[in-house]
Amino acid sequence: MKTFLMLHGINHNMFGKRDAVQYGTATLDDIDTQLHALAKELGVIVQTYQTNSEGEMCERIHQAFFDQVDGVLINAGAWTHYSYGIRDALAILTVPVVEIHMSNIHAREAFRHKSVFAEIVKGQIREFGIESYALGLRAAVSAAN
Q1: Which of 11, 38, 118, 135 sits at a 20 to 30 Å CA gap from 30?
Q2: How much helix, strand and coil, in percent to the nearest 5, is found in the chain?
Q3: Is 108 within 8 Å of 127 (Cβ atoms)?
Q4: Residue 28 burial by CB count (10 A; 0-12/13-18/19+): exposed, middle or buried?
Q5: How would you write the pLDDT of the chain (145 residues) with one tens digit per residue?
């Protein structure tokens, strides 16, 4: 059975408590529950991981390489806009990587308009709130087939 890894970035453990206009009211557990249900429907496995440590995120990406996952989804939060370390770790992967955002990063603060991951990911899903995750998993599964 194909396995996909969902990487949740910095401050995502605070979903449900953060700016509801940008992030809605869903918690990280709500998002993970939705992803696990969709994975079952699609006949795949999804593993989820969240950290507020950039180094730990890089280590988990390295582990995904060794585990030979079939695809990676990442919502890195603010790291999206400046973490060349995470970008370089993702570039090691040889599987589809889908970048996810709940909000429209291009309609927000200027520093959020650039993704340092854009050149290396298969695609980017944004602006659909919590549904961005489901769309991202569907896109990753499709790209891995």
Answers
A1: 118
A2: 50, 15, 35
A3: no
A4: middle
A5: 999 999 999 999 988 776 666 666 789 999 999 999 999 999 999 999 999 999 999 999 999 999 999 999 999 999 999 899 999 999 999 999 999 998 777 667 676 668 999 999 999 998 888 999 999 999 999 999 9
136 backbone dihedrals φ, ψ, rounded to 5°: -65, -45
Which position has the token pair 């955002």? 101
What angle (nearest 5°) sits at the alpha carbon of residue 107, between those of residues 51 and 57? 15
What are the structural domain ranges in the chain?
7-59+81-144
Class of domain 7-59+81-144: alpha beta
Residues with a known catalytic role: 23, 101
